[in-house]
Amino acid sequence: MKSRPVKAFLLSMAIAFVASTAVLANHIHEAQNGADTGQTGLDNPDGLTGNYAYWNVSHDASLWERQEPDHDTFRDREMRWSLEREDFLEEHREERMLVIEQRIHDQYFYNGGPFFSTNLPWTSAPHFECCAEEWIQGYSEADMEIRDPGLIIAQFTYFYHLQWDSEKRSEANKPEFWSEVEWEQQTGGGRRYDETGKFFKEHLQR
């Protein structure tokens, strides 16, 4: 009779171990959780087609989660400029610069992380808006500048991966993830932009 509680306890411990191991594995091994292609996303969400931006149709933005609740990666991939657009960048390289932007529309959900990787000819590392700006805008933003757009190579495939940290909680309505290419004057101002992708999380998890 006394063995039944012991067996029940051992069984519950085994179930808990298996469950925790599954969760731990999910945290350690990076997995995609949303992309701007397919049912959870939208390429070119605002219908803009700036002749300074990469092809929206080739672009693929996505969220990859790892080591919860921190160290998520927002990835922009398959970023390619046509020959015509590369000529346009070359023509305006003395007066204009490109800004590659990632946004997450819930500034209380994410903070910017310290790590990024890219093969774009960047000039300044990604920088994040201050808390006051994010509060006013309603989203977290990271900008990476390319001050000489003439360095872009036509038909070449570029990528840009940026770490985002410290999710506070799982929101019921999910945050929105946006990609954008900005076209700014070297002296500041005169900004144009092309919204190139938007997506949501597939699964609500921190």
Keywords:
Immunoglobulin-like, alpha+beta, 206 residues
Give the structure's gist in a few sentences:
With 206 residues, the protein is of the alpha+beta class. The chain has one domain: Immunoglobulin-like.
Characterize the structure shown.
- The chain has 206 residues and is α+β, with helices and mostly antiparallel strands.
- It has one domain: Immunoglobulin-like (Sandwich), CATH 2.60.40.
- It has 3 helices and 11 strands; from the N terminus they run αββββαβββαββββ.
- It has a 6-stranded antiparallel β-sheet, covered by helices on one side. It has a 5-stranded antiparallel β-sheet with strand order 1-3-4-9-6, with no helix packed on it.
- A hairpin with a 6-residue loop joins strand 3 and strand 4.
- The chain is globular.
- It starts with a helix and ends in a 6-residue tail after the last strand.
- The relative contact order is 0.23.
